[in-house]
Amino acid sequence: MTVPTSTPSKPTLDGVELYVNDGLLRPDEVAPLHPSSPSEPVEQLYKRYAADGYLFLRGLIPREDVLDARKSYFSALEPTLFLEPNLPVVDGIFNSSSSRDDFPGIGSGQLDLDPGSPAARFVDAAVKSHTDSWYIGSKEEGITGFCNHPAILEFVARFTGWAENTLTVRRTLLRNNTPGNHAIGVHYDQIYMRYGEPTSVTVWVPIGDVKLEGGGLIYLEEGYKIGERMEKEFNKKARADGMSEDEVRNAFNANMLSSGVLSEEPREFANTHGKKWLVAAYEAGDVVLHGAHTIHASTVNHDPEGCIRLATDLRFVDSSKPWDTRWDKDFEIGDGV
Ligand SMILES: O=C(O)CCC(=O)C(=O)O
Ligand SMILES: [Fe+2]
């Protein structure tokens, strides 16, 4: 399928325009993400996850716990002039008199920063949050940390059946999508975790409400089938070309760009594969679980109030099986994982 060249002008869904890095999505290019409830029988939820490649769970985490995390994050970043003054910190409204170039989102692509610039200072502060006790926890202070929220861990342990072998991978990405900035391109997570089995589960956690046009994650309809096929083809070809096991695991293959993503153009990608993007408005407390081959991307944040889209992705593995231990560390810019 080819992408039409004329600019579509109709709202995408529910009267709202949804943008990805390569433009406005047309109404026939999207469909709603199917919501589930944590109170449904776990076998039913697992069947749905296996069939769709994702599980969108409404209200898994108490809303107030998510909003506390949001407040902690923005309080730490307030001195960088990230936020509109005189509004509640928890709202996370981007400072309208700041330049968005000084506040590049982390975790949505390559960053080219001048040391000492406001952008570099902002990124340093955002990276530091990954080791703050409100986020990662602290034994000395007796703090569990948002990453280790029992509602998430207990659900994943029960859902996967990994029970006490359920391990929260240390490296997580706390991503702050400022209004109008670049959104993450099309990818599946196994690309970055090839030193482990493709059984990891990612839990994408919006930290705050995210309006439909507020830059939420989007999933390619039946995308895991395409991701599985791509990974199989890549492995076959890499071996035929004589790549060593290590090279195979490290390689960013011909399907991918240097950052590892499959494409920076979600619209074009979905059209090429004849699939829709599945979209949602998220509320604080919702999460989406997705598998290692599930193809996803993000919309560009066009929140009308300038609300910053904050989210984290937590990865879970079965610690009794081989997993990608390169991820057993805190996130750093350019850590090559
Ligand atoms: O939050 C984002 O923009 C990307 C998240 C993601 O790729 C993931 O959770 O695996
Ligand atoms: Fe991802």
TrEMBL record:
Membrane-spanning segments: none
Gene3D superfamilies from the UniProt entry: q2cbj1_9rhob like domain
UniProt cross-references to InterPro entries, sorted A to Z: Phytyl_CoA_dOase-like
Signal sequence, start to end: none
UniProt xrefs under SUPFAM superfamilies: Clavaminate synthase-like (SSF51197)
Name of this protein: Phytanoyl-CoA hydroxylase
Species, as recorded: Cephalotrichum gorgonifer
